[in-house]
Amino acid sequence: MANFCYASTTDDGLSSIQVGLPATVQIGLWGGGPMGEDLNIVVNGPPIVMLKFPIELKGFPDPHLRVFELTGVGGGRTTLEARVPSTGALYAAPLQVTVASQDELEAMGMAFFYHGTSLQRAKELMTMDLAPFAVMEAWLLDLNEYTDFGKGFYTHPEESKRLAVQWAKRKNPQWGVLRFTLTAEEISRIRRAPAPLHFPDKFTTRPANAPILFNGRPASWIEFVEFNKHIRTKVQPQRPKDNDWTADFAWMRGPMWGRKDSNLPGAPGLPERYHQINWGLNGLNVLNETIPKQRRFLFTKHNEDLI
After folding, report:
1. Where are the beta strands (DSSP E) in the chain?
2. pTM summary value
């Protein structure tokens, strides 16, 4: 479990935080001393947490926001204090920290999702509301440029999280991977309506709620992807737009396409056990709620070993 949250003098709702053992959270503290200097962050209690101030997280999304990482190294409770460097006075109410076992946190049914991008974009996504993304028409040169499931916001599930890292590194020298965390209760609310669309395999399964695209039957994964990539059209528009299914499904999940999946010359897709998730509007609404947003966690080269 990992959190990104703000501690301040005006937000009583964040007077305590829970950390897994072992696990790391990221905390943003807004404010500074009378000369604008960084506040001193000290542990006042049992030394069951370790502090780290990564340079990659400095000064975003506000120059007055100091982001630090807190890693649980022992069970129990302790207190974090922010003090003004020049006087040693408390800047804000102490933050109570409870370190619990990972088994306890996992019993809550947490699910993790990963999005790889540039470091700058990852920093922006840490605090902004997520929205469906459409590939700009100027970029849509051929079928390789289209997304498999159309417009949306794409992530990798826990079992293929290393693919998010590989994607981010391949595209960006300065890379970042954002992790989103949802509880079982939050996922159950997403599932209520509209239902998710799940393709467990590439060619066999036809989910009952899949759109009817060809031959009067619900689409298989390959039919859905080829429709979105404008492969199965007799007349190819010059620059067709990304299809938009984000209002129809809470999320869309399935394997990743390669040219050989459609009997085209080129690279094969990844084995179908590796999945991607494209979030619809209902899923994004929950990911953008205050508490799930506070759980966002940023991986960079400084903490890649945590992923």
Report:
1. 4-7, 16-21, 24-30, 40-43, 49-52, 65-72, 76-83, 95-101, 111-118, 153-157, 175-182, 197-198, 212-214, 217-218, 251-255, 275-279, 297-299
2. 0.76
Alpha carbons 47 and 80: distance in angstroms, whole number: 10
Residue 153 in tokens? 């916001």
Using DSSP, state whether 121 is helix, strand or coil. helix
Residues 6+ apart with CB under 8 A from 157: 111, 112, 113, 114, 253, 275, 277
Query: Taking 50 as the threshold, does the pLDDT of residue 8 lie above it?
Result: no
Q: Please list the helix, strand and coil fractions of the chain in percent, rounded to the nearest 5, in that order.
A: 25, 30, 45
Contact present, 114 and 107 (Cβ < 8 Å)? no
Beta bridge partners of 17: 97
Q: Check if the beta carbon of residue 117 is closer than 8 Å to that of residue 175.
A: yes
Query: What pLDDT, on a 0 to 100 scale, did the predictor assign at position 14?
Result: 47
Q: What is the DSSP letter of 209?
A: T
Contact 276, 256 (CB under 8 A): yes
Residue that the structure tokens 């079992």 belong to: 159
**pLDDT tops 50 at residue 194:** yes
- Is residue 69 within 8 A of residue 52, CB to CB? The reply is yes
Residue-range domains of the chain with CATH: 4-107 (2.60.40), 111-291 (no CATH)
